[in-house]
Amino acid sequence: MTVFAKILAGELPCHKLYEDELVFAFLDIAPLSPGHALVIPKEPAERLDQLSDESAAAIGRVLPRLCRAVMRATGTEDYNILQNNGAPAHQAVFHVHFHIIPKPSAERGLGVVWPISHLEDGAALAEKIRAEL
Q1: What's the angle, vertex CA 76, arms to CA 73 and CA 78, rounded to 5?
Q2: Residues ≥6 apart with Cβ < 8 Å to 61
Q3: Which residues form the catalytic set?
Q4: Integer CA distances (angstroms), 12 to 3, 45, 47, 54, 100, in order
Q5: If you count DSSP H runs as helices and E runs as strands, how many of each does the chain have, helices first?
Q6: Does the pLDDT value for residue 112 go beyond 90?
Q7: Which residues on neighbouring strands pair with residue 18, listed in sequence order?
Q8: pLDDT digits (tens, 9 = 90+) for 69-97
Q9: Whose CA is closest to 30, among 15, 49, 47, 18?
Q10: CB of 109 within 8 A of CB of 101?
């Protein structure tokens, strides 16, 4: 059982921000900046690609509203949304979760290094992805 499943079961405390029948949001206990929040589905899926369309849509509906509330409460205009899938992609808790991370300054919030590469054979890759839809 993950720490998020324990929070959902009421076995661990949290600072709840939002709850409905499919989604739960709370403050991160190890924040990168004030207001760092986590948004999770109640459905026990480890990775986003395993999440039902219904739970994914529910998160999509509430995520912008939560972002607006966090930004107003913290007075921060800029923020990151982070969602990792799998340990190599830096996922630490194996329950789908989205981070809302306010970026109040260059020193606070999420730091990102983005090693840019070049798109090769984009037409063939796009066709392959479309075929999988």
Answers
A1: 135
A2: none
A3: 97
A4: 8, 19, 22, 26, 21
A5: 3, 5
A6: no
A7: 25
A8: 999 999 999 999 999 999 999 999 999 99
A9: 15
A10: yes
What are the structural domains, with CATH classification, of the chain?
3-132 (3.30.428.10)
The overall average pLDDT reported for the chain is 96
Nearest to 97 by CA among 69, 61, 63, 54: 63
Rounded CA gap, 100 and 34, in Å? 11
- For the cut 90, the answer to whether the pLDDT of residue 114 exceeds it is no
| Cβ-based neighbour number of residue 123 at 10 Å | 8
Give residue-wise pLDDT tens across range 5-63: 999 999 999 999 999 999 999 999 999 999 999 999 999 999 999 999 999 999 999 99
Sheet holding 16-19, edge to edge: 16-19, 23-27, 37-41, 98-102, 79-82
In this structure, are residues 25 and 4 in contact, taking their beta carbons and an 8 Å threshold? Answer: no
C-alpha–C-alpha distance, residues 41 and 31, integer Å: 20
**pTM of the predicted protein model:** 0.93
